[in-house]
Amino acid sequence: MKFTKKDILGIKDLTVDEINLVLDTAESFIEVSTREIKKVPTLRGKTIVNLFFEASTRTRTSFEIAGKRLSADTINISASTSSVVKGETLIDTARNLEAMNPDIIVIRHSAAGAPHMLARLVKQSIINAGDGAHEHPTQALLDMMTIKEKKGKIAGLRVAIVGDIAHSRVARSNIYGLTKMGAQVIVAGPAMMLPRNIEQMGVSVYDHMEEAIKGVDIIMMLRIQLERQQQKIFPSLREYSNYFCLNRTNITLAKEDVLVMHPGPINRGIEIAPDIADGPYSVILDQVTNGVAVRMALLYLLTGGK
Amino acid sequence: MEKKKKIVMDPEGIDRSLTRIAYEILEKNKGVANLCIVGIRTGGVYLAERLKNKISKIEGIDVPIGILDITLYRDDLRMGNKKPRPEKTDIPFSLDDKKVILVDDVLFTGRTIRAAMDALIDFGRPRSIQLAVLIDRGHRELPIRADFVGKNLPSSLWESVVVNLTEKTGMDEVIIQVSNV
């Protein structure tokens, strides 16, 4: 199968075949990161710009490492040290970057749709590394890769996504991806954090954690995004964690071989108890490892042959 | 149009060639000390496996065997529309100071071998790399030659050489045919 997409903007635009191609390709890239010499010459002479308008450790580092292990030149731009602080618009920034002829631009922006606008504007491939509360496709791909690696399949699994669904691009991308791949998705969170009509995305909805995680194969905990909540939508963190923290008591409701996932960074003791985050069910660090492989696969698929 | 097909090696021929190559490898390397075998995906992998079995039958020792996928080292990734899917490389041992027998089914332009040698060097510093192929069909584009050859098969550029192996297609044979241009 040929990969014909110019950009990776969201899981919503990907077909099941395309998702499978990315996951299969990523599997082959895992090995490169385990070598003593962690570099292959595949993307020699290609330039990748990481344009991050929001804070990030994992995603930015992961993209940078992925590019470097494929021998591409990667350049990082963060908003705080760029001309954005002088008042340059996103469009002007993009046009200027385009004039320097990179091959791929990876962008994270707080505005939903920012990567889509860039994709229409410039000739380079755009990868969405998170746009507002809209999509975070590479996270969903690495999550699906981790599920497939640990469970051998995605179809037929019951996956509970718990937390602030309304503000979560990770949840949205995973809902698109997992339902496409045939999993049964359950979302749970306080009523204020559940978007209206979320059922239309093909998920079942609970406002109690215990009901949501009963008998599930996967629990995906979301981070409480303190930075996105100017208006307080719950009374206190302590109250939130009383009802929605995954701990050693409520985890027993899930299947015995449940996988615990979290996109990071984790708020220990708020949405996930430390002993669960570090415990035997947790695949949180496997997700990070697979993230590099998924991003290598995407960079490879977007650049190899035009 | 029906394609003209000619069988140039039958199962017995392939097996005899591999037996001879196994003996030649042992003769040239004076045994199996520091020896390892790496097969190039996909045809080379099965042949590497067979050579390993023959060597262990002769010497009573299993030599380490690895699988190499050269996709990420190809020199034509930027050209054309093809975006070959990389498969897994699996070399679970260090190549430092090893005598590596690199195995492929057909030696043609030499570009695959160039890529494979670049890849091997990324796994350590072998003492030597030796090349074993079942068929050498000529038409080299790079200064590369094989150390062990099953059969030299002079061919035209409009012909294609296909190595069928039981593990892949259910039967052992080498055929040469006019490729549809």
Structural class of chain B: alpha/beta
- The chain-level mean pLDDT of chain B equals 93
Please give the number of β-strands of chain B: 8
Number of helices of chain A: 10
* Continuous helix count of chain B: 4
C-alpha geometry of chain B:
globular
Low-confidence stretches of chain A: none
Strand content of chain A: 5-15%
Please state roughly what percent of the residues of chain B sit in beta strands, choosing from under 5%, 5-15%, 15-25%, 25-35%, 35-45% or over 45%. Answer: 25-35%
End-to-end Cα distance of chain A = 15 Å
Distance between the termini of chain B: 12 Å
- Major sheet summary line of chain B: 5 strands, parallel
Cα-atom Rg of chain B, whole angstroms? 16 Å
Q: Tell the overall outline of chain A.
A: globular
Main beta-sheet annotation of chain A: 5 strands, parallel
Helix amount of chain A: 25-40%
Topology order of chain A in helix (H) and strand (E) letters: HEHEHEHEHEHEEHEHEHH
- Count of DSSP strands of chain A: 9
Helix-and-strand structural type of chain A: alpha/beta
Helix-strand pattern of chain B, N to C? EHEHEEHEEEHE
